[in-house]
Design a protein that fits this description.
heterodimer; A: mainly alpha; 8 helices; about 0% strand; disordered C terminus; B: mainly alpha
Chain lengths: ~220, ~475
């Protein structure tokens, strides 16, 4: 296969991993949303390139969903939401940024160590794409566990999900990719609406998840 | 495959699907409850008829020895739970906890959940199965949060986030399975269809399958409620409407377990892949022992039985992880008994919480005196779930323990220890609730006790006498599971 295919695919997928790292240390919600927009654009470029390289026209649909839904609709509504809630302030990051970054690097190393030997027989284009995708998934998980704020947890989940779409697009000829990306978009829309409703009904004074842990119904 | 041949399995999807749409459009809640029961009953009849006439596998749906057990069990409990929910929900409207608009929504979502679970069980495609499990998760999240109290919203949010992470990991595993199948089966649908995967799995890349299974086990295992990924389960059970607790414990956990079992079978075909057994045994034992100790600290009745579900899912996962005809048979039997008993317990608990107006165990005492029928029903249910003879769970637990003794005596020690710990906790709590001076409110209630005692008598019957047909059937499935 043409060398160019690899290089461009790596450029986009590698960019996605780097942006995941930027997400890890962003400590302002508005900055987080901006970086996530870049993350989504890179995903759609990456999926679009896979569509071109694999001659798989249905993947263009997935790329379009990524760019319209995740790079435009979701960031806009999140921005409106944090403005209404008045939480443009700093988000609390649990643990120090240095430790989080080191953990992130360890996770990327882990995913390369796990995926590359396991996929020795698979198509090389798919193989490295999957390794990058797993890194993005694990970094998204790391972001979800280090954040306490509901909005930043969602962004963590969406970056995780971007990694999954990258993996699905990289698996050559995989059916149902479009359906799966639609199913995920529905899921995310539900989450965003959910948070929005929580706030509108004023059941909570904050969207800090630690506040949610208040009632347990068990003796301590 | 001919169309004529296949209409039965697609009916299992069409009935709940259509019913969900009808119920969403229907204003009257009494009629809605009746339609809900009728649709669930019809679905159960269709599932039963699959036993006699089995359609050929298609590109999207298939029926085989394994999933038919799950389908019949889940449609049966779906049916009895809908009957219980009719009387339960009416009381919720009377006390003003739910308004008619939400009840309309509730019934539509109930059928949507049945649709998603049947689809997950019948899907002949690993991608379709994943989508179905995702839909089932979404519908139950909505149900858990339906009371919209801060506690319910917290539970729904936690369930949402943990469930989403779980299904995300499962999707990554699914993609890896496709990737391992693609060089052998070629691109496209074939490499995601169960029936063709099972035939060709011997040629897949074993290392890729190993990595895939770890993701699938952790992903779907979150939905099974295995420790340490169980955190969503007690909250979701405690804060949602009780019929949903019954469906969650009795059915949804099984559906997730079914997914794990399917992938376990896939790995078993490939000789070079790791054996999934030890991973399942470890997670199962951890859940059993952890939940056993957690049972002592509960003071909320629904949370108590939620932890008991974690315990029993641990036992079942352990049994399937041990493998072999006897342990698999015990696992299947235990799964069936647990689903029947646990949903029966939730039927009783639902009415108890309604008459007492609380879920706090400390405020529920002397049930057998104040409400003899409900009280003794709960006593029978808890005795069954704790594993006392002659009820069905005693027998299946006995089989799990004895097959473990025969093959891995050392593993039997933590297993029996966990069982005893849980047994003690359950009896302690039961004595508090069932006997002594009646406390709190003593409202009378129009409870439908038919589903409760129906389930319990089935469990008792299974403990005394297993029909030979059932034994042969389960033995076949156990062999299939390897």
């Amino acid at each position: 296969m043409d060398r160019l295919y690899f290089d461009v695919a790596h450029l986009f997928a590698g960019g996605l991993v780097l942006t995941s790292f930027v997400l890890l240390y962003q400590d302002r919600l508005s900055g987080l949303i901006n970086v996530f927009t870049i993350h989504a654009v890179l995903l759609s470029l990456s999926v679009g390139w896979q569509a071109y390289a694999q001659h798989a026209s249905h993947l263009y649909v997935t790329a379009a969903i990524a760019v319209i839904f995740k790079a435009v609709v979701i960031p806009l509504s999140l921005r409106k939401m944090i403005e209404r809630m008045g939480i443009h302030r700093e988000v609390e990051v649990v643990g120090s940024i240095g430790v989080t970054m080191l953990l992130g690097i360890a996770l990327v190393a882990l995913s390369l160590a796990v995926i590359l030997p396991a996929t020795a027989a698979a198509d090389p284009l798919a193989r490295e794409d999957i390794a990058f995708a797993l890194s993005v998934v694990l970094l998204g998980l790391l972001m979800m566990v280090t954040r306490r704020n509901a909005v930043s947890q969602i962004i963590g989940f969406m970056s995780l999900e971007n990694g999954l779409i990258l993996a699905a697009a990289g698996a050559k000829g995989m059916p149902l990719v479009v359906e799966i990306s639609v199913a995920f978009s529905v899921l995310i829309a539900f989450i965003v609406i959910g948070i929005f409703l929580f706030r509108i009904r004023e059941r909570f004074d904050t969207v800090d998840v630690q506040e949610l842990d208040r009632v347990r119904g068990q003796s301590r | 495959m001919t169309l004529e041949n296949f209409h039965l399995a697609s009916l299992l999807l069409a009935i709940p699907g259509v019913a969900a749409l009808v119920l969403a459009a229907l204003p009257g809640y009494r009629l809605a409850a009746q339609i809900n029961v009728a649709a669930s009953g019809l679905t159960f009849l269709c599932a039963g008829s699959l036993l006699f006439q089995r359609p050929a596998p298609g590109l999207y749906l298939f029926v085989d020895d394994l999933n038919i057990v799950f389908v019949v069990l889940s449609t049966f409990i779906g049916f009895t739970t809908s009957a219980f929910s009719a009387s339960y929900i009416e009381h919720e409207i009377d006390t003003g906890k739910l308004n008619p608009a939400y009840v309309r929504f509730y019934h539509a979502i109930y059928q949507a959940l049945m649709f998603a679970m049947n689809l997950a069980l019948l899907a002949n495609n690993i991608g379709l199965m994943w989508v179905a499990v995702e839909v089932a998760t979404l519908t139950t999240v909505v149900m858990v949060g339906i009371y919209r109290t801060p506690e319910a919203l917290e539970a729904a949010w936690k369930y949402f986030i943990l469930g989403s992470v779980g299904i995300a990991l499962a999707l990554f595993g699914t993609i890896l399975v496709y990737l391992s199948a693609q060089p052998v089966l070629g691109e496209g649908y074939d490499a995601m269809v169960w029936t063709s995967l099972m035939q060709k799995a011997a040629g897949f890349s074993p290392r890729l399958l190993n990595v895939a299974f770890v993701f699938l086990m952790l992903g779907y295992g979150t939905k099974v409620g295995l420790a340490p990924m169980h955190a969503w389960l007690p909250d979701a059970h405690a804060e949602g409407p009780t019929p949903i607790s019954a469906v969650l414990s009795g059915l949804l956990l099984n559906v997730a377990l079914y997914a794990v079992l399917r992938f376990k079978m896939l790995l078993a075909v490939n000789a070079a892949a790791i054996s999934p057994g030890p991973l399942m045994v470890t997670l199962g034992l951890a859940s059993l022992i952890f939940a056993g100790f957690m049972l002592y600290r509960r003071d909320d009745i629904k949370r108590l039985f939620a932890y008991s579900s974690i315990e029993h899912m641990g036992i079942i996962t352990f049994a399937f992880g041990m493998g072999g005809p006897l342990a698999n048979f015990a696992g299947l039997l235990h799964m069936t008994m647990h689903s029947l008993t646990k949903s029966a317990i939730f039927f009783a608990v639902g009415h108890v919480a309604q008459v007492k107006g609380t879920q706090k165990i400390a405020k529920i005492t002397g049930l057998t005196e104040s409400h003899p029928v409900l009280g003794w029903g709960l006593v029978a249910g808890v005795m069954a779930i704790a594993g006392l003879p002659p009820l069905g769970i005693f027998m299946s637990e006995f089989l799990v323990v004895s097959s473990t003794f025969a093959r891995q005596p050392l593993l039997a020690i933590p297993l029996v220890f966990g069982l005893l710990v849980a047994f003690g906790a359950l009896l302690l709590r039961l004595i508090e609730m069932a006997f002594g001076e009646p406390s709190g409110r003593v409202d009378k209630i129009e409870a439908s006790v038919v589903p409760l005692f129906g389930h319990l008598s089935l469990v008792l019957l299974a403990g005394l006498y297993l029909p030979p047909h059932l034994v042969v059937w389960f033995q076949n499935v156990a062999r299939l599971l390897g």
